Amino acid sequence: MNNIKVFHYDAFSPYPNKGNPAGVVLEADHLSESEMQSIAHKVGFNETVFVVSSDVADLRLKYFTPGHEINLCGHATMASLFALKTKGILGEASSVKIETNVGVLPIQFSMDNNNHLLIKMKQDQPKYIEFNGDRARLAHAIGLTLDEIEEDLPIVYGCTGAWTLLVPIKRIDSFNKMKPINSLFPDILTQLPKASVHPFSLQTLDPHALMHARHFSSPYSGTVEDPVTGTASGVMGAYYLKYIDPHMDSIQFDVEQGQEIGRDGKVNVEVYRLDSDRIDVFISGTAVFVGEVDLWK
């Protein structure tokens, strides 16, 4: 039997047991996709990422929830690149390119004002589909009433690598009340039944943040809630330029997430309008090593 070492990192926070936990498996070329899926299921984090070789980039990342493979994951990208950089595997490189299921994406490394390693990743071009489902049923499925959903902003499916339903919420005090019934999601999200649900608000706890959010997993993922979500934070930035202030050409801000479940984290988001059809999306964050898990296959 072969030993598989899974490194546990928490992303989007410099503090252990905050932010979003991810499993990281380095040098995973010898693993089949079914073995990767089995490992992700055993680890049980929202995502486990496997670092493999690439013919078109510096490395390739494959991401698995406990239930299935996904195309892109922000926090697992942060965790794996933090591991590779701090372990010296990437040497003095200030940037690398990663191959993912949505294409080759650039990564940049820098240090923030607190001397934490900062990782900046580009995401896929944002895509949107307007939600045409039952708003009252949707509110019930996340433990709210219809009047707590903002009427002046649209509910849309958004994607910069993974589809999620963006649900604008009027007041931040609604977030403590939320109790997702994930099993109801597929029958409500009829256009994209495997999408997650991402309620957000422009009211925040931290005055330096612009948006507050929670993220409820698709029941097909095998998890309930994602503490701090990179891809959804990125698509929220593009949502801001498209629906909240369409006259802006760029914006940079922090998203806060995880406070309701004791996993406080921050994602820095940058978005730039290139033309009427294209918006570039970047997210930045740090990570921290927590521990190791030994599995056998």
UniProtKB/TrEMBL annotation:
GO molecular function: isomerase activity
Record: active site: 47
Pfam family, one: PhzC-PhzF
Identification of the protein by name: Isomerase
Keywords: Isomerase
Family: Belongs to the PhzF family.
NCBIfam families, alphabetized: PhzF_family (TIGR00654)
Organism field: Paenibacillus etheri
Gene3D superfamilies given in the database record: Diaminopimelate Epimerase, Chain A, domain 1
A cellular-component GO term for this protein: cytoplasm
Keyword NAD set for record: no
